Amino acid sequence: MSYVDEVIERIERENPSEPEFHQAVREVLNSLRPVVDANEESYRRDALLERLVNPERQIKFRVPWIDDKGQVHVNTGYRVQFSSAIGPYKGGLRLHPSVNLGIIKFLGFEQIFKNSLTGLPIGGGKGGSDFDPKGKSDREVMSFCQSFMSELCKYIGSDTDIPAGDIGTGAREIGYLFGEYKKLRGLFTGVLTGKGLSFGGSLARTEATGYGLLYITEEMLKDHGQDIAGKTVTVSGSGNVAIYAIEKARQLGAKVVTCSDSTGWVYDPDGIDVAALKEIKEKNRQRLTEYKKYRPQSEYHEGRGVWTVPCEIALPCATQNELTLEDAKTLAANGVIAVAEGANMPTTAEATAYLQAQGILFLPGKASNAGGVATSALEMSQNSERLHWSFEQVDAQLKDIMIDLYHHIDDAAKRYGKDGNYVDGANIAGFEKVVDAMISQGIV
Ligand code: NDP
After folding, report:
1. What is the chain's mean pLDDT, rounded?
2. Domain ranges of the chain
3. Looking at ligand 1, which residue's alpha carbon is closest to its atom 30?
4. Which CATH superfamily is domain 206-368 in?
5. Percent of the chain with pLDDT over 90
6. CA of 375 to the centre of ligand 1 (A)
């Protein structure tokens, strides 16, 4: 059995009931086969892959909090500090009822390569809780965040581990978490990113993941002789990533005709109205059923369905495994030319393989949504130098990072004879930097 297969088999055996983590490890290690095969003896001796796929540290804790009626609830908190090979752990906090250790490990593992691809000195980590902020009052969310931070604060710091937002963790949650950290530790440092602008946040961080997704998609299309202007785009999700992906796509001259949330989806033939979407989701925290009140010509459908709408570019921006093989077949039959992941692992392994086999351009999330964490690292730089950069300065750096990132993964794919396979290109390019640091630092 090859070294890669041995490690995959061992991960599946030793981490039962963690299918998302298995999926992420399989995908990355399969891409790395040519690199591992060329170095099998030394990697095996140093147990390099075992060290890569096992987190440095996993923290799991109890989070008791009190609702508005005085009832106490207990949720579970997680922080997985996966790899500090190239910098302090960096990755978001997901607050969603579906959260469990396996999901946090999958996200933390992916984060290692994503962070490496940004070219910035940040390691990989991820955290979160099965707490659901939806439908909770601000007081209840604050009670949860304070309790969560009272434990998490023991393990994080501006030079050790710097959490950020993710699903369910937006500006409000980051604010409460930061306030509690400051109170408990007596430190005003850049320990979290995605902070409010009045207390150390970076301009353009809110927009960064969605904008970055469009910058890299535009560069890929350009490289293949295509222009994003005039294209029809479908987007899933209506959260932070989706909203700013839609905004930038429109700015670049594309027409975005869909968005969705966990209960339904919208088709707007004239193009999604971003101002209406922001008001519904960011300001009023409502469901997408409200969208029709702003745009009577639009359609609202219960359930899933975004990928049935004909488009040239598809941008899944909601959650993992939301674009299935069946969806991929429908997209291909409808003439899609490119799929770029805004969310983390939104495309199933079978769907990814199908799209690639059809010659459809495919950008994996660890490359295409790296703009968020890259801008978080720029927030860390601003916090360290106690300065504030302009929106234009941050946005220009973000654009440069995404363009460089595209050429970096394109080059890695070409070097290993996988021209146009950006999944393999991203995994190999991300791994090369991490493995070099791991070897240089010895067996730790
Ligand atoms: P938000 O919480 O702002 O939005 C998530 C969106 O996805 C919402 O529209 C939500 O609908 C929908 N959604 C969540 N879970 C499900 C589900 N199980 N089924 C269907 N729809 C669902 O999160 P973000 O926009 O920040 O994150 C979206 C994705 O992007 C995640 O995979 C995240 O890990 C990834 N990402 C985010 C980054 C960031 O900077 N924010 C950076 C890099 C990656 P509803 O409101 O109904 O729950």
Report:
1. 97
2. 55-188, 206-368
3. 343
4. NAD(P)-binding Rossmann-like Domain (3.40.50.720)
5. 100
6. 18
